[in-house]
Amino acid sequence: MLLNDPRVDPTAEDSIVLRNMVTANSAEAILVLLADGRADPAALDNWAIRQAAFLGLRNVVRALLTDSRVDPLVGGDSSALILAIRKDFTDSAKIILQSPSVLPRAKNYGLIVEAFAENRLYAAQLLLDQYNFEVVAELDPVTAIVKFEECRNNINIRTSLSQDVLAVVDKVAQMFISSGLNLDDRSASFQYLCCEWSEVVEELQS
């Protein structure tokens, strides 16, 4: 076996051997390299899993996630998770979302809240789609809270909104007031809205 030869260095050129195996869609070879332990699957800002997610190579994604050095959330809007969702590779996205390193952060919409807190609204909306949030008055939790904040900061904006949108904004305001939330804590407010969104939809669609 080549890996037993002392002249072989799987770490060379930022673990290019492993990265080549990603491009070749060889999950088995990647598992062998990971078992050897020397090649770094997180080299170049987790290039390996980001590339696998971008190409929709679900078996490669699954193989890479067996190594604790791999972080599919590194890279913001260019992370493996967001790339998989953006390219509509739902299998790869689900594998990432259900991986042990991601699952705790995904609980209670944590990943969506993280993206929202960092003002990565596009990523937040992509993540919303993975949870099948319903839309009401063409609004989802991201766009609804943005409208709510706009109205809160400038009441005159209300005159430019449709009655349907205003109904959502007012419902959101009512929920926030009833909850006693600190509205300056955008992350907590948004997380609360995500958790209670079904109530907004149910009331406004009835």
UniProtKB/TrEMBL annotation:
Which superkingdom is the protein from?
Eukaryota
What protein does this entry describe?
Uncharacterized protein
* Record organism: Rhizoclosmatium globosum
From the broadest rank down, the organism's phylogenetic lineage runs: Eukaryota, Fungi, Fungi incertae sedis, Chytridiomycota, Chytridiomycota incertae sedis
